[in-house]
Specification:
By secondary structure, this protein is α+β, with helices and mostly antiparallel strands. Helices cover 59% and strands 12% of the residues. It has seven helices and four strands; from the N terminus they run ααββαββαααα. Strands 1, 2, 3 and 4 form a four-stranded antiparallel β-sheet that branches. It is globular and about 50 Å long.
Length: 224
């Protein structure tokens, strides 16, 4: 199937998602997102007339809500959000069940982009967890977290490399549209919750043997 055929199929699915009933719409949007991910395409690769208008939103369902979120999961979520024209905001001191000092990661962006982030994040966490079972078997917490942080770093490198190659072949129209989308999300956040304070990294002690093993896995990660 050529890229033009793929784009035409995505166009039809997006049209169906905009006009069908709720269940059919969700199914069509999910299939369109899967095709975009599989063929390394984004909404920016489609002509504006083929993309249904979507308002930027604050998703009411947090990506994570817990007393403590693993550093590697926060980093992975932030990377996938940025590469899909979304932003994450961390809320601390949040009430989660009986815990009044919990943490929530809330995502902002267009609904279809948010759905893509959720899909990729769930897939990545499940796949990396499976990959880590043998190398991290009988190892301690620091070793495991180092392995996962290395894997996330490798995924980030792979995504940056893919983005760089895509930009070399992309039209100026597509590049401007991607930059505009992130600026619109940033403006929406500033208008709704004000200027954000940049977060700081964690202080996980790194086992570099485990980190490098995970990094190699991340560099070769396949989003399916």
């Amino acid at each position: 199937m050529t890229e033009d055929n793929i784009k035409e199929k995505i166009k039809k699915l997006l049209a169906l998602a905009a006009s069908a009933n709720e269940n059919e719409s969700a199914a069509a949007m999910g299939m369109a997102q899967e095709l975009l991910a599989r063929h390394r395409l984004t909404m920016a690769d489609l002509p504006e007339s083929e993309v249904p208008h979507e308002d930027i939103i604050r998703d009411e369902e947090p990506l994570f809500a817990a007393g403590r979120i693993h550093q590697w999961k926060s980093q992975l979520a932030n990377i996938l959000a940025t590469f899909n024209n979304c932003r994450l905001v961390k809320y601390t001191g949040a009430a989660i069940g009986n815990n009044t000092r919990g943490t929530k990661l809330v995502i902002f962006g267009k609904p279809s982009d948010i759905d893509m982030v959720r899909y990729l994040l769930a897939y990545s966490i499940t796949t990396l967890t499976n990959f880590a079972r043998i190398p991290c078997m009988d190892e301690g917490h620091s070793y495991k977290q180092s392995w996962f942080l290395g894997a996330v770093s490798g995924i980030h490198e792979k995504l940056k490399e893919g983005k760089r190659k895509a930009e070399e072949n992309a039209s100026s129209f597509a590049l401007v549209k991607v930059e505009t989308q992130l600026k619109e999300v940033d403006a929406f956040i500033r208008g709704n919750i004000g200027k954000l304070r940049k977060g700081t990294g964690g202080n996980t002690k790194i086992n570099y043997g485990a980190y490098n093993q995970g990094h190699n896995v991340g560099r070769n990660f396949d989003f399916g």
